[in-house]
Amino acid sequence: RNVLKTPLKQGATSPLVLTGRQPDCQPLTTPPKPKESPPADPWTPTSNLKMLISAASPEIRSREQSKQLSNSLTEVLQAKHCLQEHLLGDEYEKSQPSRKEKSLGLLCHKFLARYPDYPSAAQKSYICLDEVTEELHVERRRIYDIVNVLESLHMVSRLARNRYIWHGRHNLPQTLQALRKVGEENKYIQQIQMLKKREYEHEFDPDGERKEETASSLGSSEQSEMPFVELPGVEFRAASVNGRKYKSLRVMSQKFVMLFLVSTPQIVSLEVAAKILIGEDQLEDLDKSKFKTKIRRLYDIANVLSSLKLIKKVHVTEERGRKPAFKWTGPEVLPNIQDTKLEATSTTCSPPISESIPSKVHCSKNLFPSKGKQNFTRHSSLIKLVKSIENDRRKIQSAPASPVKISTNFVLQKIIFQGTHFYMKKLKYIWAFCLFFFCLRTAEETQMKCALSSPEAAPKPEANQPLGVCPASYSSASPVILPHPHSGVSYAIYLHPSQAHTVTTYSPGFMLQPLPCANVTGIKSNNSKVLNKITTEEGDSQIAVAEPTKPLAAEERPKMKSETSSQRCLKRSQALQENNLIKRHRSDEESLGASLTFFPSGYLIPLTHCTHGNKTECTNKDKAGMCSLQHPTYSSPITGVIPMTAPELKTVNIPALHITPLNIMLSPNSVAAAPVLSNSCLNSSNASSAPNPSSSALNFMLQHIGLIPAGVQVPANPVLQHVPVSSQAENGHNSGNTNVQEGKVRTNLLHLGRGGLRRDYSAAIPLQQPSAPKEPQEPQAVTENFFCTPGGPNSGSSLPANSDGAEKTSQGTLYIPQRKLEVSED
DNA sequence: ATCTCCCGCCATATG
DNA sequence: CATATGGCGGGAGAT
Questions:
Q1: pLDDT under 50 in chain A at which residues?
Q2: For chain A, N or C: smaller number of CB within 10 Å?
Q3: What is the SS3 assignment for A602?
Q4: Nucleotides on strand B lying under 7 Å from protein C-beta
Q5: pLDDT attached to residue A320
């Protein structure tokens, strides 16, 4: 093979090395900036903007201008910031158009900028590769990389040679759904678990031939020829129905995405991905070069996916140091519950934009069965889980040699992580809901004064209570509410019991109010390796810097709501010390390197601005527009989700937060039906006879909210649906229509269950009370004000608001991202 | 040194 | 056959 060298960067002389491949074109070697590149500082935001904008076609430009502006501005700023960081010593100057400028990611951005995220039927756009390559000044080859990945997501499809059609993100939800499904069928989870396990064992005894179960558990592993996943509606008439279609990049991209969709912490390390994608076949196929190649391709794919904001780079830290990984930041893809078609009647509120809506409705049905009888046991995932646990149990019993301890831990973890994960997925919505109303009530009753409260707060106290107050005034709420340092947006964080052991933390400036829970045990494993220690940190770690000095205030959570703020302050400072202690403790722990570390993760409920206007009549087109607007999720005020990012998790410690939503939904039957849960509860809340803090908190909250009469205690395993909705929920006094209010409560519950917090409450009303005169304004106002925060959009924050597609298609669904950072498999 | 990943050769598929 | 696609891996910038 002839040796062609990559031209040196400044290769003024390099051309000679190259074979004359493009005779008439310029010297080929992308000379140091031969042409049109603006002589001026290439990295100023403006120049970059210009470039981006000029790249867009005129019509798109006008339509998308604002979006582009904010979008690219953010990015450019980030890039700039990033750059700035790197060139710290030097007087941050224009760096040569270095490699970064040619990165696939940037190129992809430019590419994407040309087309609307949600093109309407009218603006169906075609992609001519020749044009693109010319306009973007890039080699054709690169465009293929991008297009292939986009194709794998059905965002584009090939029409003919040189010609693609742009679909935008319309198909995304379906695609992801499909991919997830295939991923599940493909048993990726198991494969990942096996990989980790093997790795672990490997480390334990360096040469032992561990092949025991490789064969067994992966019996069918090889559909390695998993074909390209198609979508029913989207036909790929491209004549290229065969051959390479089943080959690499496209399929690889799909598989990669699948990995995210099926794995529990939606974090996938490159290494794992590569191994799995290489073909799980021969484990010891230490084919180094193959692996390297795979990694290279994955980077390519990842770059594109990152541009799409579906994933973002993080790092996973295990015993063996940092490993590059990526975290899913795209829309949440719910597992496809049963396939039975749901009656479309209940979706009258808004025309289903995508298939995902019915499925959400369905989900809500499962969550809140109308007949108390049916419970979670019917959920296929649960059944699977139970089965797998039984399997594990069997394994344990039949495995003579293996140390029981490990196995037990394994099962325990599985139970906890998987089981709780499953329930958390549902329950977090309920908690969000509870929190919501709890705050309303609390605000009302305690009449907290907020410095920022608006004048008209009096008439509608709860409605106008700026969220910023929450942290202080609602400290009695179980969920932790965190104000966002940048935006003033607040978040509630729920910590999963199993992760609440040692919590690493959140960025300073956050205020935490943990529950007093002396006995959080978590899983004390002697086998610390079983649980990989994972920390993730943002690729671009620009975070955490905000309010560097303001220490985190952790507060011993009080049981009484009537606490005064001064008391709180006191406690806060106490908590501070406490926090430090814990921090110290943790570092000790780390230095020992022996003990298990649990990670924080939580459910962030960003209490941000809500959307305005009546979205109910959001037509497709409107929606497209709206969505486009929200696309630059970074700064969108209506972005529903702001996942907690690692950098925020690494500076401080939070004392064991013990909030276990799990307790909410457990009915006696469901417990019986789901041993998983009871186990998990047991474990998390510890077998001590002390009343379960969570349950007391819950009781308190429920009473407070008015969902249950004072004095009544919801048992440890209350069933939410059995709790009567109190008609005296007086928080509706401003509406003057209690009934409506009540109805809303219920409908809201439904909505919460199905997709997360609905911001658009008015849309929810018809669901249950089609005939009731709905007052779009009123509920709107409530939610709006409730979620409103004094601060502006979370500008500058690196918190990517994931949510894209999902949020768009569900009209402002505010969902609570799950941020479990532990490794739930081993 | 390791992580990223750009570049472009060249095998294949397409038309 | 000419082109369009895209697999692939060397090796150079970034860290």
A1: 1-95, 206-224, 233-242, 281, 338-826
A2: N
A3: strand
A4: 3-10, 12-15
A5: 72
Give chain A's radius of gyration (CA, Å): 27
Residue nearest to nucleotide B11 (CA to C1'): A244
Supply the pLDDT for residue A174.
Answer: 86
Spell out residues with C-beta < 7 A from strand C.
A 3, 5-6, 8-10, 82, 86, 95, 98-100, 129-130, 140-141, 144, 147-148, 158, 161-163, 240, 244-245, 247-250, 289-290, 292-293, 296-297
Residues in chain A: 826
User: What does the alpha-carbon distance between residue A425 and residue A420 come to, in Å, rounded to a whole number?
Assistant: 8
User: How far: A166 CA to C2 C1' (Å)?
Assistant: 27
- Locate A407 and state its tokens: 């196995």
Q: Determine if strand B comes within 7 Å of the CB of A527.
A: no
Contact A673, A377 (CB under 8 A): yes
**Token pair listed for A695:** 């349950």
The DSSP-derived string for A87-118 is T-SS---PPPS-GGGG-HHHHHHHHHHTS-SS
CA distances from A757 to A15, A162, A426, A816 (A): 59, 44, 12, 8
Residue A80: what pLDDT? 42
Question: What pLDDT is stored for residue A513 in this prediction?
Answer: 26
Q: What is the DSSP letter of A510?
A: B
Q: Are A280 and A191 in contact (CB under 8 A)?
A: yes
Chain centre distance of CA A379: 23
What are residue A269's DSSP bridge partners? A325
Long-range contacts, stretch A191-198, CB < 8 angstroms, 24+ apart: A191/A218, A191/A221, A191/A276, A191/A280, A192/A259, A192/A263, A192/A272, A192/A276, A192/A825, A193/A825, A193/A826, A194/A218, A195/A272, A195/A275, A195/A276, A196/A272, A196/A532, A196/A823, A196/A825, A196/A826, A197/A825, A197/A826, A198/A283
Per-residue confidence (pLDDT) for residue A277, from 0 to 100: 82
- Pairing of the two strands A511-512 and A125-128: unpaired
Q: What's the pLDDT at A183?
A: 85
Task: Give distance CA A558 / C1' C12 (Å).
Answer: 59
- Taking the C-alpha atoms of residue A16 and residue A686, their distance in angstroms, rounded to an integer, is 72
